[in-house]
Design brief:
CATH superfamily of the domain at 3-42 and 94-166 and 258-338: FAD/NAD(P)-binding domain
Distance between the termini: 19 Å
Oligomer: single chain
Number of strands: 18
Largest sheet: 9 strands, mixed
Structural class: alpha/beta
Length: 376
């Protein structure tokens, strides 16, 4: 493949690896820049909606080989421990990022994609081409670059992205437990200042990941004290924690998680996954959105490289199609988060759902998309 059709991808997480596989499958050469080695645990809910299952299969990704849990039910619990369940029409699967990302990376290498372990420090765009500079002071030239480096990075500061200049009130915490928990269920447990997702991944391991407002968390010395005084006031969560055995030496955390709007194009870089926008974890759909955004970007990049569209059309089309697929979902997620964080409002909603059970399937539908067709 001529070097003029090379694609650089900054970040080797779920979105970056999926985009790489899509592009490699279509005969284009791809280089991924990833600062970490595989496998690696990441702060993530680790539930994937089946809306992207067929698309993943079309890329040669055999999800069954990862032995995921098969999830078809969701449950919401308020702070008092009262809960309501509903079936997930499309269903989903649970798989850890430790296993999933490493598997995708192996697929990329097998298709002769290049993964460079380094951090991108700068991206310049001149004469219709990109020049990437890494912390090891190496430079690489590409016709197109995709940004897939996650929720926040030093590169956001270099690119002067507006959201990075604003402090975010959120802290995310994730851990794996050995505990008895239904392998078909993804549970959402509300507590003061946040909410916690619980679901099984591969090998009967249970992933517990919660998001908490920093103003609530900072009153306590550490995670253990916070959990004891706040998180475990939800009796259903207390039961899970008391019966479980932690599998990590210490929880993984990420601070300054931002749910502010993010431009989809920065300095002509096409942003995908969490780099383009983040849905509240309570919606349980961030991984599927990352995969879907990689597909949307890859299809347009291919059209651009084939000279079917110009760069301006690529950028405008991607911003439009991203909004069409995800904007309303993200907005609804923000509203839902606001309701759940207010104990009074949360209790009213729970009572309404009890009287009108169809409300919960409506909420699920608003935070999930339609099946992503494998039209590559």
């Amino acid at each position: 493949m001529n070097k003029q059709t090379e694609i650089g991808i900054i970040g080797g997480g779920l979105a970056g690896l999926t985009a790489a596989l899509h592009l490699l499958n279509q005969g284009f050469s791809v280089t991924i820049f990833e600062k970490n080695t595989y496998p690696k645990h990441k702060v993530c809910g680790e539930f994937v909606s089946n809306e992207v299952y067929s698309y993943l299969n079309s890329l040669g990704i055999d999800i069954t080989s990862l032995h995921p849990s098969k999830i078809n039910t969701t449950m919401i619990s308020n702070r008092d421990g009262k809960s309501i369940s509903a079936s997930l029409e499309m269903g989903g699967f649970g798989v850890s990022r430790y296993i999933f990302d490493s598997y995708l990376a192996e697929k990329v290498v097998a298709l002769r994609g290049r993964i460079i372990k380094d951090t991108v420090s700068k991206v310049d765009f001149n004469n219709d081409a990109f020049l990437i500079t890494t912390e090891n002071n190496e430079t690489f030239s590409f016709i197109q670059v995709l940004g897939a480096y996650g929720k926040r990075s030093n590169l956001d500061t270099v690119l002067q992205r507006k959201f990075i200049q604003q402090k975010s009130p959120w802290l995310a915490v994730k851990m794996h437990y050995s505990v008895s928990y239904p392998n078909t269920l993804v549970g959402l447990y509300n507590f003061k200042g946040g909410y916690c997702g619980v679901s099984q991944v591969e090998n009967k391991v249970v992933n517990i990941c919660y998001l908490v407002q920093y103003k609530v968390f900072k009153k306590y010395k550490n995670i253990e004290t916070f959990q004891e005084n706040v998180l475990l006031k939800n009796q259903k969560l207390k039961k899970i924690f008391s019966q479980g055995t932690p599998l990590f030496e210490k929880p993984l955390t990420i601070s300054q998680v931002s749910f502010e709007n993010k431009p989809k194009i920065e300095n002509h870089i096409v942003m995908i996954g969490d780099t383009a926008g983040l849905i509240h974890p309570l919606c349980g759909n961030g991984m599927a959105m990352a995969i879907h955004s990689a597909k949307l970007a890859s299809e347009l990049v291919i059209s651009f490289l084939k000279k079917e569209i110009n760069r301006d059309q690529l950028e405008r089309s991607y911003s439009t199609i991203w909004d069409q697929n995800f904007k309303k979902r993200i907005q609804f997620g923000k509203v839902l988060s606001t309701i759940l964080l207010n104990n009074f409002a949360s209790n009213i909603v729970m009572k309404m759902i009890a009287f009108f059970p169809s409300i919960l399937p409506f909420i699920i539908k608003k935070t999930h998309g339609k099946e992503v067709l494998d039209n590559i």
